[in-house]
Amino acid sequence: MTVSKIFSAMAVSLVFTACAHSPAPESTSLYDRLGGQPAITAVVDDFVDHVTADKRINGQFANTNIPRLKRLLVEQICAGSGGPCRYTGRDMKSAHAHLKISDANLTALLQDLSRTLDKFKVPDKERSELMAILAPMKGEIVTVR
Ligand code: HEM
Q1: Which domain holds residue 100?
Q2: Ligand 1 near 104 CB (within 6 A)
Q3: Which residue has the least CA distance to atom 31 on ligand 1?
Q4: Which among 40, 23, 128, 26 is positioned nearest to 84, based on CA atoms?
C-alpha cells in the first residue's frame, strides 16, 4: 500500500475518547476532541511500542531514546492539534536526515499508527484531521527515493 493510500484509508476509517452520545461542538479543538493530554499520551505510547516491535523499521530506532521520542511526539501532536503545548524537538528535516528514510519506511510507520488509531477507535473526522497535520511533513522525512 502506498503512503498516499494509507493517508486516505485513515481518512475514511475510524477519538481517542469516543463519545457517541454527546458529540463535541464543531468549534472544539482537535486536541480536545482527541481527549487531551492523557489520550494523546496513551496513543503515542501504544504507537511507538508498535513501531519498536515492527521488524520492517525498528532497526532505524536502535539508537533512539524512546522515552524522549514519545515525549516529543506528544508535544508535537498536542501543539499541532490546538493544545496548550510547545514542541521542543528538532525540525523534521534535521531529526530524520541521518536515517535514510524511504517511502516504504514511512508506509510501515503509518500502518503502525493506523493500528493504534483502530485500537483507540478514533473516529473518521479526527483521524483525517490528524493525518492532515502529519501528511505535509512527508517531504522533510523521506529522503530515499
Ligand atoms: C509523519 C511521520 C513522522 C513524524 C510526525 C515523526 C516525528 C518525529 C519526532 C517529533 C521526532 C523527535 C525529534 C527530535 O529527536 O528532536 C522524531 C525522531 C525520530 N524519528 Fe520520526 N517521525 C515520522 C516518521 C518517521 C519514520 C518513517 C521513521 C523511520 C522509519 C522515523 C524515525 C525516527 C527516529 C529514529 C527518530 C529519533 C532520531 C534520533 O534520536 O536521532 N520517523 N520523529
Answers
A1: 3-12+30-141
A2: no
A3: 96
A4: 40
